[in-house]
Amino acid sequence: MATLTSSSKFSVFVLIWFGQLVSLIGSGLTRFALGIWVYQRTGSVTQFGLILLFTTLPGILLSPVAGALIDRWPRRFCMILSDSGAALSTLVIALLLFTGKLEIWHIYLASAVSSAFNAFQWPAYAAATTLLVPKQLLGRANGMVEAAEAAAEILSPAIAGVLIATIKIQGIIFIDFATFIFSVITLLCIHFPEVRTISEGKANKESLLQEAAFGWTYITGRSGLLALLVFIAVVNFLTGVVNVLVTPLVLAFAPVTVLGSVMSVGGSGMLIGSLLMSIWGGVKRPIYAVLSFTLLGGLSIIFAGLCPSIPVFFVTAFLYFFGLPIINASGQVIWQKKVAPDIQGRVFAVRRMIAWGALPFAYLLAGPLADRVFNPLLVANGPLAASIGRIIGVGPGYGIALLFVVMGTLTVFAAIAGYFYPRLRFVEEELPDAQ
Questions:
Q1: How many domains would you assign to the chain?
Q2: pLDDT tens, residue by residue, 153-179
């Protein structure tokens, strides 16, 4: 495979990308349908939210070990393992549904198992992209990855909404299983280039636990990458709080039909941003894109809280989600260029654990912050009703709006602080490319 040309390598990447796109859409169908199934049978927002927790937390916790194994094993095998494990857990849910024995805890368990296998998927996919795509095309390739995510976010709920009335949830889950099989077949039909091992990677291939710890050691030894990781983790926490509260904020000022439209507009912004990144490839200094579009996202959140209304929700949702894939793809380019391919599994897995590890905390804190802290501040005769209430408003939903202003302001401060921290702003100059 060392004789593959750049063009043929990129063709392999496109085939992998298409298989993952199909799989993402199938997973989105099941996620949407199972969410409805749980909520309709329990009426509990807490039990509904636990699906999200079980879908994310196991994969985050297992990331360091998965990253060490990814650097030991072929990347193609890791992706096949991930898709196969997720497919089997999906098949078990379908069989339980058909036999009428499905319980809520089955869904939690299956989500946790699928999340554990997914710990292999993202780092292996990102590391494989580095092997297959020339440096000058990494921005476009990562834009394509973000476009696949956006397309799944837009298409899956719409398709599932139609299918759930015709082929029922069982049929949807079997479609998801078929998409996993399709993805595995695409991976079986191709070969990845061999990973050239550098001395640093060899020196740290000892016990599995030592290899798992190596990713953290590598990042902390490079202040620019550590700053980028901390920056993304902080922003993920702030925007994670916002993401949880988008639905109650919109529903406080608009009917359910408008909420669906706001989500669609946001998804369209994400898709357009992804397609732009796929065609354009990003700026020469990707860190500037990360910082500037984070700033735009923070300003959008502030505006949504200051002027909560239907037109504002449409505009801010579009702007926020438009910048999201550009941030993700640009950040990914930096990591892919600065980390050698043979250690990317370990480094990317630790990066994922820390950056995404902020999200469960955001999910857990968002509700109590809104219900117990911010909502009481802006009720009639509340502590802030006569001051901030005159600017934002007083009544149901305005406490969440104030929380949006706070989270958005902190996001803006994070972007500004990131720009004025030299190690982060000059990460691309101070760290040499690894390939």
A1: 2
A2: 888 877 887 888 888 888 999 999 999
